[in-house]
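Field notebook, page 560. I keep forgetting to write these up properly, so this time I am using the form the group agreed on. The chain and the ligand, flavin-adenine dinucleotide, are recorded exactly as supplied. Prediction of the bound pose follows.
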Amino acid sequence: MIAPHPSALSDRYDLCVIGSGPAGMIAAIEFARNNPSRHVLLTEFGGHKEAARNSLDDSIHNLNPANHHDPYECTNKGLGGSSITWGGRCVMYDEVDFIERPVVRDHCTWDTALFEEVCRYREDSAAYFECGTGPFRTTDMPHLREHRIADGFREGDVLDSVVERWSMPTRFGSRYRREIENTPNLTLGLNLEARDIHSDAHGRVTSIEFRHAPSGTTVPVRAASFVIAAGTQETTRILLRNTRIFDTIGGPPAALGRYYQGHVSGKIASVRFSGVPRATDHGFHRDPDGSYFRRRFQLRTEALCRENLLNTAIWLDNPLYHEPAHRNGAMSLMYLAMVTPVLGKRLAPPAIANSVTKGRVHRVPAHILNVIRDIPSSIVIPATTFFWRYCLKRKLPGIFLHNPQNRYALHFHAEQLPDPDNRMRLADDGETLEIHYRLTDGDVQSVIRVHEILDAWLRECGCGELEYWFPENQRADAIRRMSRDGIHQSGTTRIAASPESGVVDRNLRVWGTENLHVCSSSVFPTSSQANPTFFLGMFAIRLARHLASSPQEPAVPGAP
Ligand SMILES: Cc1cc2nc3c(=O)[nH]c(=O)nc-3n(C[C@H](O)[C@H](O)[C@H](O)COP(=O)(O)OP(=O)(O)OC[C@H]3O[C@@H](n4cnc5c(N)ncnc54)[C@H](O)[C@@H]3O)c2cc1C
């Protein structure tokens, strides 16, 4: 049910979840579905729809706009959270992300036993994300087991059998709103901003105060358990603002707000395969249920550990859209559409549009010439793509064009070093969240070395080679200039075995408290090559079941 006004809220709940993005929504729905006699309150700062401006994003100070997107491009506020604009790429973390490796300098504060445990929730998470029930490796798919990404490729240090999957993309607000309305033991409270956390001397959180902006009132909510699922930056800000809850352990954990990570991402090379162009597996596959998946290159765990490298995925991509030298009319028309005011904004959210346009209106006459020269395919390809991408429920996740020369740009997406100086902190006013984010030499050098290993492996297989876009001495600078994140946020409330090295325990309970949990990718100590949301969904399901099995004080009788 949806509470029409804060006055309709109950005295006390079994569970209060803060934030209605994928993490909060999955945790709340999963708990409510499995515990019909227990009452859940799901609270959301925004309303049914996202407002043009909001006080949270307006009070973020991003100190590195070159490598970190502006606040409004990083998250969305409203029912469904950032799934309002997310791309829907669903990727699994890898075992290597849970192994203590010299490259991450003692900062891998979770372990492979936890990975194995969380993996049990993969299929349940896939159901919430609607990304298909199929496996994440072609080795588990009989029809693709013997197929390779390109003629002559074989697996060794480099793998081509890992796949990424795609959600519809599921917009959690519109997708699950009806279920929330029809679930008697689940109440949604909108326009409620979690502010002050009150706890007793034993670390039991007794209530959390919410600000209801439309009425200007403050509402205390009492619950047996609380889950903060407000996204990485807001979860971190709530904890930074409420450090009194850590008095039981002598003060806030040193890791709170630190080790902020995203992904290093961009393109510095193309691959030219030497075999039959039509044999190159550059595009999407579909499962019988219609869900999309696609191959990527990754390094084997042993190779990453031997070379002391950060986990990295590399996928085949189109050449840079904004450079008309690609001479592809369809790409030029799509680029022109994206840089057209109003239309461009409707086609993709700013962070994704930026990856296509690079924020530049560049050589328009040359693009127009490409379009004219390539007619009719410069019209037919964008028209059919538009239909598949915008007019169907399950949307075509991206556009990857076949290249008759068998040459593809390579898009890297790499883990970042957990660096204590990459951090979120409260400014002196106690409200503004400062974001300190930089790329380290370790981040950049790892990307370069992974490309070298891929190149060497392709040559050894006799199936192709890399063609770099920058001379060797300019590659590091190029990566530093092109990489921009802030949409995959993790690390600032990391899991660890003690408050000396982390902020939450392996069950996501905040150290120093008895009944306060965090469900956000902020708990991930390492950022993997993987986009975080699908894996976070697995943690959300695990947390909901863990809370259901924990002994709890019953909610006050008379709850709705
Ligand atoms: C353009 C874009 C593309 C993306 N593409 C992908 C992708 O392809 N794959 C992928 O894995 N990830 C992707 N992401 C990242 C993905 O959207 C996030 O990882 C995911 O939404 C995080 O879920 P969450 O529930 O933790 O937080 P959010 O989705 O950010 O939701 C948090 C919610 O909490 C609310 N909230 C905040 N503060 C408070 C408060 N004080 N009180 C109450 N409520 C509060 C917010 O309003 C928000 O609704 C993308 C993100 C963007 C912006």
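OBSERVATIONS:
- The radius of gyration is 24 Å.
- DSSP finds 16 helices and 18 strands in the chain.
FOLLOW-UP: compare against the apo run.
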